[in-house]
Amino acid sequence: MTEPAADSPSLRLRILFGTSAMLGPGKADLLEHIRETGSIAAAGRAMSMSYKRAWSLVEEMNRAFRDPLVDSARGGPQGGGARLTETGEAVLTHYRQLMEITAKAGADQIGALQSLLRDMSDGK
């Protein structure tokens, strides 16, 4: 989840699978936060997202793929939690690799587009 510098161009890739499924940077970041925190709620908080919204996105991804991406357990005496499944790890890896490939392949064109931008260094 490396963020580009504020003054450098950034590339955001959203993959639409027909009209039934979509994978983009927000969902990929959510998966990554779930992997890091072991919690859908904590992942949502890390992204300034409500638990309801984070849970909704997890359910959406779990429905869209052949196998669930996130496995979760309710809280209780043993505590709850969430983890990426093998499929979830694979989806996240493929998405991040595709982002890297796309950024490298498009670097010259992005630079060319940036060179055509108006100078906005004065904040206007």
Compact description:
The chain has about 120 residues and is mainly alpha-helical. The protein has a single domain, classed as Orthogonal Bundle (Arc Repressor Mutant, subunit A), CATH 1.10.10.10.
CATH domain topology:
Arc Repressor Mutant, subunit A
Uncertain segments are none
State which percent range the strand residues make up.
Answer: 5-15%
What is the helix/strand order? EEHHHEEH
* Number of E-state strands: 4
Distance between the termini: 29 Å
Enumerate the strands of the largest sheet in spatial order, edge to edge or round the barrel: 1-2
Structural class: mainly alpha
Q: Into how many domains do the coordinates divide? A: 1
The rough form would be described as: elongated
What's the CATH class, please?
Answer: Mainly Alpha
- Rg on CA atoms, Å: 17 Å
Q: Mean pLDDT, nearest integer?
A: 90
What summary fits the major beta sheet? 2 strands, antiparallel
Structure notes:
This is Winged helix-turn-helix domain-containing protein. Pfam families: HTH_1. Residues 30-89 form the HTH lysR-type domain. With 124 residues, this protein is mostly helical. The protein has one domain: Winged helix-like DNA-binding domain superfamily/Winged helix DNA-binding domain (Arc Repressor Mutant, subunit A), CATH 1.10.10.10. Helices cover 52% and strands 11% of the residues. The protein has helices at 25-37, 40-46, 51-64, 86-115; strands at residues 15-17, 21-23, 70-73, 81-84. The strands form two sheets. Strands 1-2 form a two-stranded antiparallel ribbon. A two-stranded antiparallel ribbon has the order 3-4.
